[in-house]
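Re-run with default settings, no changes from the original entry. Doing this only to confirm the output is reproducible before filing.
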Amino acid sequence: MNGMSARRTIKGLFRKALEGVDPRRRVAEALARPSLGRALAEARRVGVFACGKAAAGMVLGLPRKLRRGALVVLPNGYPAKGLAGCQVLFSAHPEPDSSSMRAARRAIEFFDHFSREDAIVCLVSGGTSSLLALPRSGVTLASKRAAVRRLMRSGASIVEINRLRKKLSAVKGGRLGQRTRARLVTLVLSDVPGDDPALVGSGPTIRGGSRDITLVIGSNRIGLEAAALAASESGLQPRVLRRWLSGEAREQGARFARQARLLDPGEALLAGGETAVTISGRRFDGRGGRNLEFALGAANGLDGVEDVAILSAGSDGVDGSSRAAGAVVDGRSLTRARQLGLDPARALDRHDTEPFFDSLGDLVVPGPTGTNVCDWAFALRRPR
């Protein structure tokens, strides 16, 4: 395995991780459970509400007869192929706007339409917090956005951010679910550490009802397990980190590179989580995201180590303001950058990492993947 084949292999692990959290398959497998089948069979009517980056794929995991009349909320620009017969709304992400408020009001109307004898299948994935936004009484959308933006720029975790969103919202924290007496069957594709369904998308349908059913059907860990299996099948020895990646992206990338340097030939290191990028008070118009800053931090830590490759990428296929999911680096990345006159320190300082990796040809650009379980970082040391 040479440098190019190591890069192909590590990109292959990313694809296998994505396959492991395919929303269509995860929903179909969940509905095969007897408990869910009974709950839906007992209902007079069954409605479907889906919201988030994985909403389209999750709906396609349902039987066709259940999809008719489903209310589906997707990010602007996401494909809606296969959703004929559904009510499809598009709203804003990563920051809510008036379209997010319209989607929230339409969701309230939808939930109001069902009674105690009915059931609503709720398909919730990451991105819901922005797509479905209705500030509580006394809070404006502008003030809510400003509060969340300040917290995000401070480097806060997704858990801290979603807790604030719930506090300021009229639909999050189970408040949407409280608008109906119907039984709620909530299937969650988790993008939070610990996979608490009340934190995914700020938990709009997690109201604590005694008849409700809530299942986490996909997670970052499931994707890691799929990547580990693929690594074993390709002859590598996988090591899966249990620690959730968090903290400043560039620093965590450098730390991950130090761990990767300790790998034996033929070993792979697999980790998942969500790091953060702290934006200073200065204004920047750079393109990038946390995975690209993680990758550049890792490149700094790998400089000169030519038999190790690292990939950092977001499962949703889009990293921050860039068009990429992330990037692949190795011990020659900075040497190649210097030959092209690129300045990694400047790219990090200006949060302008997409052009840096684009010049190197090292971007990972799958486009929107239709799923969302946070990020993965993979490393491998080539076998001798």
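The chain has a mean pLDDT of 94. The chain has two domains: 3-19+221-381, 22-218.
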